[in-house]
Amino acid sequence: MASRTSAGTAVVVTITIFGILWFVATIAAVYFFSEMDNAKGQVRNLQTGYEEIVKAGERESENVRAALGAARSDRKSLVDYLMTTNRELMKVAAGNPDLTLEQLRARATELTGSETEPLTQAMARLQGLVKSRDAELASARERMDRLQADTDAERQRIRTVEAGVTQAVDEANSRVGSYGRDVADLRTQVEGFENRVQREMEDERSRYQGEIRDKDRLNADLNQQILVLQDQVRRLRGEGGTNRVTPLDEFALVDGEVAAVEPAGDAVVITLGRKDKLVIGMAFSVYGSASEIHMLDGTDNYRPGKAVIEVIGIDESSARCRVVKASRGNPVIVGDVIANPVYDPKKTYNFVVFGNFDVNGDGIATPFERDALVAIIERWGGKVIDDIAGDLDFLVLGRRPVEPVQPAPNAPREVYDEYLRLKGRVDRYEALFAEASASSIPVLNENRLRTLIGEFPR
Question: Which helix (H) or strand (E) segment is 324 a member of?
Fold first, then answer.
């Protein structure tokens, strides 16, 4: 009974131990499988990270093996080795280890001008350009040195030439000074001779002109006596007629004389001037004497003179004329008489003067300077009238009055009256010009007027 109890106890103990072991084994298995799952997860994570670093297909690549070998040699991981190498490359290539690949590529493109040319190739090309430029610079410097040497030599030659020229100029100036003194002495002698000859010529001319005038008067007297005697003879013979009209005495047709003749003979000075109311452009016939002024036989025309002259400049008591026609072999000389059958110094020319004038020459034309122009006309002997009439000779128009700006409808009456006054001046200017053009009356401006009457502006 006792043995069965002991055996039962042993079985219970054994079962208990076996249960405990099974429980422990179960616990251990659960723990083991849990750790195995964790390990597998870590392995998967490691494999994923490893794949991110280097893919399975790239592990057998020669470049990867070389990089791994270099990393093991430096006792570094592949990533650390590659990052360190990349920073060194950036530092060598751009001087900045923190530069990214895109930034390096942008700088390389900016420097080389190409997105595909390698930096080393670009550097080699640039070094070649630098060597070529250095060679060109050396050649240019060599040429510059030669040019500098040539320039120095040329400057030395120029200094030598300048010294010679200066010496020659000094010698020439010395000779010129001597020549100048000789010329001054000779000029003094020549001027004295010319003055003496001029005085003798003037004396001779005066004597000759006096003789010519005496002969002209004698011829005129003789001609007058001959005419009287011929008239007496005709009356004695019964040939005279009571209805015969005799021509105007030739002495009455003489208007003036030639006072001087220019050496070339193409211009003369006459004894008529502004006081005689000459007009620029007036023509005179020139005769050797008053007796030559007579009508041609059987006609009512006067005998032509030896020359025709035209007034081109007027002074107070004389005028300058150009010779427009002359007889060959019979030149115009001092003492010749001039005549114009229609010229009458007693005629008074009528003028109408209107517009803005610049008589004082200040560049500003105003209507107030009209009075000064009127004074010039009256001093010459003309007459200024107000309106165009049948006896008007000239219309003198200044600058056209400025067109006034029309005032606003509500403007003061004084402003509107001033507008009407200024507008009336403009209308009168246009009306005078139109009426003179229609009547063929000469229209003059200030300069033409002064030229006409010989009163040139100063």
Answer: strand 319-326
CATH, range 350-452 = 3.40.50.10190
Sequence-distant (≥ 6) Cβ neighbours of residue 79 within 8 angstroms? 53
Burial class of 337 by CB neighbour count within 10 A (0 to 12, 13 to 18, 19+) = buried
CA–CA dist 373, 392 (Å, integer): 17
Domain at 250-339: CATH architecture: Beta Barrel (2.40)
The band of 257, judged by pLDDT with boundaries at 50, 70 and 90, is very high
- Tens of pLDDT, residue by residue over 145-159, are 888 888 888 888 888
CB neighbourhood size of 125 (10 A): 12
**Which whole-number Å values give the CA distances from 227 to 119, 215, 249, 295, 331, in the listed order?**
129, 18, 11, 14, 29
Evaluate whether 326 touches 264 at the Cβ level (below 8 Å): no
Residue 357 phi, psi (nearest 5):
-130, 155
Q: How far apart are CA 358 and CA 432, in angstroms?
A: 20
Q: Considering the chain, what percentage of its residues have pLDDT values greater than 90?
A: 16
| Cβ contacts of 316 within 8 Å, gap of 6 or more | 273, 274, 275
Q: CA-CA distance, 457 to 141, in Å (whole number)?
A: 69
**Predicted confidence (pLDDT) per residue in 12-63, tens digit:** 888 888 888 888 888 888 888 888 888 888 777 776 766 667 676 666 777 7
Calculate what percentage of the chain has a pLDDT beyond 70. Answer: 82
| Annotated domain spans of the chain | 2-53, 62-117, 250-339, 350-452
Q: How confident is the model at residue 247 (pLDDT cuts 50, 70, 90)?
A: very low
- The CA distances from residue 327 to 72, 213, 256, 292, 331, in Å, are 132, 21, 20, 15, 7
Tell me: the pLDDT tens digits for 338-377? 988 667 777 788 899 999 999 888 889 899 999 999 988 8
Q: Residue 308, Cα to own-chain centre: how many angstroms?
A: 46
Structure tokens at 147: 């040019």
Specify whether the CB–CB gap between 59 and 47 falls below 8 A: no
Residue 168: count other Cβ atoms within 10 Å of its Cβ.
10
Q: What is the Cα–Cα distance from 39 to 299, expressed in whole angstroms?
A: 159
Distances (CA, A) of 12 to 1, 17, 75, 77, 98: 17, 8, 62, 60, 76
Whether 350-452 and 250-339 are alike in CATH topology: the answer is no
Q: How far is CA 192 from CA 185, 196, 197, 262, 443, in A?
A: 11, 6, 9, 22, 52
3-state helix, strand, coil in the chain (%, to 5): 60, 10, 30
Record the pTM.
0.37
